[in-house]
Design brief:
Number of helices: 5
Strand order of the largest sheet: 2-1-3-6-4-5
Largest sheet: 6 strands, mixed
CATH superfamily: Zn-dependent exopeptidases
Bound molecules: zinc ion
Strand content: 15-25%
Order of helices and strands: EHEHEEHEEHH
Number of strands: 6
Radius of gyration: 15 Å
CATH topology: Aminopeptidase
CATH class: Alpha Beta
Number of domains: 1
Shape: globular
CATH architecture: 3-Layer(aba) Sandwich
Structural class: alpha/beta
């Protein structure tokens, strides 16, 4: 059993990216985040940085994971870069460890495999929510940009709850892959203490 914090990007007054049809990144991030937490919960304890359409400061997001001494923190976002951009990319922080890279790769691989998205790979960025100094020392973190909301075809596809469930399942599977490898290596006893 592991403690996983799911961080749906944006919220409240911050819509995030806005698609050509006018849908918001914050809406899909929350929906996919809730689905991901729901899938993870029977085997683990999954918490969320927000459960509704509220604004949460960037630094408060890793703070939640730190307070809970989370094993894993996954921030969920949708990308924007013109009408033809497509694909998935997952971010790790430049100061992160090889373990964070392993988490990012596991999530990236699963999302690409499940959705058939263009594999844009694991990248590095100095995003606040995955900054190691803001996290508990044993929390591994990554930020997944699932797809491009600026792409009209992708925005339409995101309107389908089955597709959003598929994405959530893939993110959960990525986390499970990461944790399973941990167990195999006998790395950490991730049983939570009260
Ligand atoms: Zn975002």
């Amino acid at each position: 059993m592991a403690l996983i914090v799911i961080d749906p990007g944006h919220g409240g007054s911050d819509p995030g990216k806005v698609g050509p049809a006018g849908t918001f990144e914050k809406t899909y991030a929350l929906d996919v985040g809730k689905r991901t937490a729901g899938i993870l919960n029977p085997d683990h304890r999954a918490e969320m940085t927000r459960r509704d359409d509220t604004f949460v400061e960037l630094a408060d997001r890793p703070a939640t994971a730190k307070r809970l001494k989370a094993d894993v923190f996954v921030s969920i976002h949708f990308n924007s870069n013109g009408p033809s951009a497509q694909g998935t990319e997952t971010y790790k922080h430049p100061d992160s460890t090889s373990e964070d890279t392993r988490l990012a790769e596991a999530v990236q691989d699963r999302v690409v495999a499940a959705t058939g998205h263009n594999d844009r790979g694991v990248k590095e960025a100095n995003f606040v929510v995955i900054r190691p100094t803001l996290h508990y020392v044993d929390t591994r973190s990554c930020l997944v940009e699932v797809s491009f909301l600026s792409n009209a075809a992708e925005e339409t596809r995101l309107g389908d709850p089955d597709y959003r469930q598929e994405i959530a399942q893939a993110i959960a599977d990525g986390v499970e892959d990461f944790l399973a490898e941990d167990r195999k290596a006998g790395r950490a006893d991730r049983t939570r203490k009260p």
